[in-house]
User: Fold this.
Amino acid sequence: MPAVVARNERCPLCGEEFDAAGQGCRPSCPLAQGCRVVCCPRCGYSFPQETGLAGKLRGLLDRRRERPGGTP
Amino acid sequence: MTPPPPAGAARSQVDLERKAVVAAPRCLILVGNPNVGKSVLFGALTGKYVTVSNYPGTTVEVTRGSAQLAGRAWHVMDTPGTNNLLPMSEDEQVTRDILLQERDYAVLQVCDAKNLRRGLLLSAQLAEARVPFVLALNMADEAAGRGIRIDVERLARELGVDVVPTVAVQRQGLTLLSEKVAEARPSAFLPRYDPLIEAALAQVEGLLPARGGFGRRALAMMALVGDESLRGLLAASMAPAELERLDGIRRELSARYPESLRFVISRQRLAAVDRLHDAVLSRTGATSAGSGLARRLGAWSTHPVLGVPMLAAVLFAAYEFVGVLGAKTAVDFLENRVFYDRVIPWTQALFGWLLPAGPLHDFLVGPPGAPFRETSGFLVGKYGILSMGLSYGIAIVLPIVTTFFIAFSILEDSGYLPRLAVMVNRVFKWMGLNGKAVLPMVLGLGCDTMATMTARIMETRKERVIVTLLLALGVPCSAQLAVVFAMLAGVSAAAAAWFGASILAVLFLVGWLAARVIPGRGSDFVLELPPLRLPQAGNVAVKTLARIEWYLREALPLFVLGTLLLWGLDRVHALSLLERAAAPVVVGLLDLPPSAASAFILGFLRRDYAAAGLFSHFQPFMQAGTMTREMNIQVTVALVTITLFIPCIANFFMILKERGWRTGAAIAGFILPFSIGTGALVNVLMRRFY
Assistant:
């Protein structure tokens, strides 16, 4: 199965919010096992999910923003 | 194990529930964009007794239930998420068809308060359809948390319908919403279009039959944009002469605009929605002072004339950033200072210390003291995993794609990317590509493999094959584009122009081919453009990091695999045989050095790896500024050939899966000689005219 994490994603191209489950690389691709690229169901734009190090950095930034006095 | 109930019993249970549902005197239809909390609201209103069934003739599920709202029984339907009543997908068509076919209903539109603009686009269409509705501003708490303030009273006044902020997951606002549903009424918010469209709408409205509670204006809009899914309904209720007249009005109006009518109408509706949106929404602590300038810049960025210099400036900045900072400064540092001056000598020293001189030492890092490019070591050698595979992947391609990904993330976060897509869409249309064919071509600039999958949107097999071919042939993916940028920064401006002109000429040729075999006109590309804003450094960092992680996972293993292949071929002396076999093409036709053959072998795995091989060959001369005329020609010819070369292995597998092995083999069989033939032609022309 693709390594896509099931969660809501927002397409950077058309702004669509969608459930990433089922929107990952297809098994026909030899890289599907580890590929974290998701495909927007509305416009087809593909982009990698923010997981791993990027996910951790996102979490850190979000926590900083949520703290009182953090950057809005 | 509990035996399943008899099929008849199960069916009668469902029938019973459906009868209970249908017996309700009034019908409420939930409509909204995808992921706005519509199903949560449906669950909160109806409780657990619901039926789920496929909408007739489709695989789209529609959920029905019952609810007591303001003391009255209601039959409630939850429809698939939709952005448009001019449907572009089966889900959207089902929602539109439900609104067309049901009778005496009220609509509860659920909108994400964080994305009011998208919701209002749907509100405007419900208003045009004259259906009675109430607007729920769901996730109101999250919107407030983000500093978004919506003037609910003014919005209700402008729309002419009740607007209720809700938090469905906490059941906040549901009591008031239940009361307001009983008072649902058609909205007074009717966007006005330009006089040509208004006149055509008036004519078409006169031709159309009444359709229950669904307004003629909305039906006329669908008929004008040539909504094929409506064709059957119109054919069943209109005389052939009236249908012909409708087609005539549509053709006449369509001829007045360079873009598709769907696009023109959506743009004008969006302008009306923008005015309403700006009037009712404010952001606390946000840079509202700059929003006017941002909106003007946003409008200029897609303007047919003003958008071109902006596009050129953006591309030039990306080219300078990637070509100079990435390909020169960062590559020089990582390749020479880190890999060649430190990592490789240290690795050789480490193995010299760990292993005695002998066959194992020579196998891994070559004989002691010998320059690594003259040995066949497995780790450090001419085709060593470390000195070639990782050196290409980490020291050459990584800094180039990193700078490219930074530039790309800035485009995404600033909101310019959809505008870039609109402009590229226009360029592709000038090239002769049209209609739906444009979308996969634009997406191919990100990843050809995924774009090949989106060729499914084409209606016929012939169209899908052509689009797949065009993608595999002429559209470089982001990683390859980055290396191409880097190499172009090292050649003369004239040579770079030769490359650009050659690729454009091929695209025009294939575009012409596509225009001949793919019918249709206009493009239904981007409908919603987010406002331009200053990119946030944190967002850019996260997006870039996500892409780098993806690149390292996807490309680096293939780089290592390709190096292993070359190393194995070299060990059994097959590489020199291949180079000799390829010499008539590589040296004779393309006038490239014989060693370029190995770059083309790598091209079968990934085109960016092949380009990295060529980059590595010419980089010392580019850095020293000693590129000769001959070298400029060689780089240009090699780049043209590699850009048009067969797709990467992942894309090739996708082509086989999507189009079948015969078509896949035929596409590869066409592209291979075509890319080499084009390279040979450029070589001849450059030697004559460059």
User: Anything to note?
Assistant: The two ends of chain A are 37 Å apart (CA to CA). The first helix of chain A runs from residue 52 to 66.
